[in-house]
Structure formats: structure tokens, C-alpha cells
Amino acid sequence: MEATLLSFPSHSLTKTQTHFLSNPPPFLSSKPKRPSKLSIRSAISRNKKEETVETVKTQLDDCQLIAAIKYKGFTVKQFQDLRRSLPETTKLVVAKNTLVYKAIEGTPWEVLKPCMTGMNAWLFVHSEEIPAALKPYRDFQKEKKLEENDFSGAVFEGKFYAPGDFKTLENMPTRAEIYAKMLGSIKSPASSLVGTIQAPARELVMVLQAYVKKLEEEGGGGGGQ
Question: What is the chain's Cα-based Rg?
């Protein structure tokens, strides 16, 4: 139904009629309503949050360890210096606890929840060399005198490590050390080999891999003579 604009002689218009013609109701106005600045900011904020969650989910692929660092008081330059000090297999992500938890919820990494208080930056380690991945931050922390900015927690192989448990992670044997231990056990009495077999499953697997590699190398060498 079309709206009919009423016409009145100028001398017969009342104040109410004059106001009506000067300020027509919204349904008679042809000007489109522009989105408010608030709604635009909300949409941008929502998109950024979704991008952050996806970034965290991407980092979970082939991840060996996630560690949280208290970063309150960090400067932009300190973040830049820290990122440069990390190995290529370790990524630093600054994200709110709620967004990180949203990304890890329902996964084995969910046990990281106890350290999700305060302001955290997150280390995603894509390497089995855990001590080598954690050492750069320890060196950075000592150099910059950031005693208050300690690790607030970590998850490795489905287990949560509190700040007081980090020595266990930082003192884990390297792959080379495990190989050396395995090769030494092969040449030593049976009792030593039993001790190696009783080691954690992860170490045993690496030991067996080293042994297979050694046998392959010896077999290859013998075939060439």
C-alpha cells in the first residue's frame, strides 16, 4: 500500500502537522539505516577471536608440549627478542586464556586448564627435544631479570606440570643421550639391559629405534665387503 503525502494550505497547518511533515516516521523515510560503529567493532572483535582460536588449533598439530608463560609487564621489544631466541620448532602465541581453552577443550591438552589465570603467553613445541625448547626462555628470563615472569604450567604427554615440576621437563635426556645409553646397555651385562627396559615407554621406543638403526648400518656395511 502506497503512502499518500497529505497537502495542506500553508495557512491551515498546525504545529503538529508541520512537525510531521518535517520529521516523517521511519517507515516513510527512504534513507537506509547505517550500521553503528559499535556493531562494526563487535564484528571485528568477534572475527579476531575466531582467528585466534583457529591459530591455536593449528598449533596443536604435531605439538609435543604446550607451556604457559606469565607475560604481565612484557614490552613489545621483549616479545620480539624472545621470539627471535626460540628455535624454529617452537612458536610463541599471545592469546587470552578463554580463547586457548576454547581451542583445546575436548582434547588431551584440556588438562592445561589449572594454569589459565592471569596473563599468559603460550609456547607450542613441535619437537621431541623438550629441554632445548624450554632453555631459550630460561636464558631470556635470567638475562632480562624477569623472575616474576615464570612458567605457569605445561602439558607433556597428557600430563599437567605445575611450575614446581619444570625441572623434570628441563632435565629430560636428549635423544642423543638416550641412544648412547641404549648402545652402552647392549654391550653391558644383562642386568643393565633390564634396567633400560624398565625405563619409561617413550625412552624404550627411542632405544629400540636406535638399535634397529645400528643393525641396519652394520648390515649395510657388511654387504659392501
Answer: 32
Say how many Å lie between the first and final Cα of the chain, rounded: 100
pLDDT tens string for the chain (225 positions)? 455 545 545 455 566 555 555 666 655 555 566 666 667 666 667 889 999 999 999 999 999 999 999 999 999 999 999 999 999 999 999 999 999 999 999 999 999 999 999 999 999 999 999 999 999 999 999 999 999 999 999 999 999 999 999 999 999 887 667 667 766 666 555 555 555 555 555 565 666 666 666 666 666 554 444
Q: What angle do CA 110, 112, 113 make, to 5 degrees?
A: 85
Unique residue bearing C-alpha cell 632445548: 132
* 36 three-class SS: coil
Under 8 Å CB-to-CB from 100, ≥6 apart: which residues? 56, 112, 116, 120, 122
CA-to-CA distance for 74 and 109, rounded, in angstroms? 26
